[in-house]
Amino acid sequence: MSRRTLTTAVAVTAVVGLIATSALAAPTIDYNDIPLTQAELDANWVVDRAVPSGGFESVSFESRDSVLEMRVDPDNRSTGSSFFFTEGLLRQTPGAAALKADLYVDPAWEGQDIRAGLWGVGHDESGDRTAFPIIEYHQDTGLGFTGWRVWDSAIGDWVSHPGSTSFGEWATLEIVLDADNNQFILSVDGVSETLSGLDSTTLGEVIVNMFNYGPGTPAYEVHVSNFAIGEVMPTPATKDDCRNGGYAEFGFTNQGLCIASLVSNR
After folding, report:
1. Which of 129, 209, 216, 237 is the most buried (most CB within 10 A)?
2. What's the pLDDT tens digit per position in 201-248?
3. Distance (Å, whole) CA 68 – CA 58
């Protein structure tokens, strides 16, 4: 995966795409929280590319329990190709339409190269991989860049994300597949970027990853918590669907909000 500046043509295309989809309402998601306990990690998570070189486990961290801690040991980096310098864990998420997790932006990262993030894996109806919607915190001391970026599978490159998180804060990362509109919505603390869904029908896997810069670079830790897998909730078609308690089936707290959604989605 390379890094480059978008050409004017691609930038214009991206802007047009965002304008075209900006009026489309995001689907309502019903999340199932999955605490990252040691039992959960042992049962459902496997190594992606390379095992975290400094180890991984479920810990208590920053007043939170069931936090995944992955550690980078620069002196224990894979001796394979650079593909395996990315270390992390993968979980199967069949049928998922959304993924969400909190990533801690560690003050200890300040002043060093960092790559850590949440990866979704789009699948088509046949189960084949179609796209990698990724949200990554990236810090490049050589370029003087610190911030969020997303991987746009349609152009095969990274794109800057408008989200902003200060050191010492948890950032809520969310990847939503809106299959009806063939788009991914990638959010950092509610600030979103919309990318092509490339005909994905589900987010079949989730990956939490980090990058090992190798000997001579600082070790660092990555902490992830509040992981959840989401499904798209049905939407009301008429006002009658919202009445007599029907609003609850669509995730609304009252009838008025349910009816209001019909008006806003016209």
Report:
1. 209
2. 999 999 999 999 999 999 999 999 999 999 986 778 899 999 999 888
3. 5
Q: Where are the alpha helices (DSSP H) in 143-252?
A: 239-242
- CB contact at 8 A, 155 and 132: no
Report helix, strand or coil for 187.
strand
> Under DSSP, is residue 10 helix (H, G, I), strand (E, B) or coil?
helix
User: What whole-number distance in Å separates Cα of residue 49 and Cα of residue 88?
Assistant: 7
Domain limits at 246? Answer: 235-266
Asked whether residue 77 falls in the same domain as residue 152, the answer is yes
CA distances from 262 to 67, 241, 247, 255 (A): 39, 10, 12, 11
Q: Does residue 242 lie in a domain region?
A: yes
Task: Supply φ then ψ for residue 20, to 5 degrees.
Answer: -65, -30
Q: Please give the DSSP secondary-structure letter assigned to residue 219.
A: -
28-69 residue pLDDT tens: 899 999 999 999 999 999 999 999 999 999 999 999 999 999
Q: How far, in Å, CA of 33 to CA of 226, rounded?
A: 7
The CA–CA distances, whole Å, from 209 to 32, 175, 221, 228 equal 22, 15, 11, 16
Residues 129 and 161 in one domain: yes
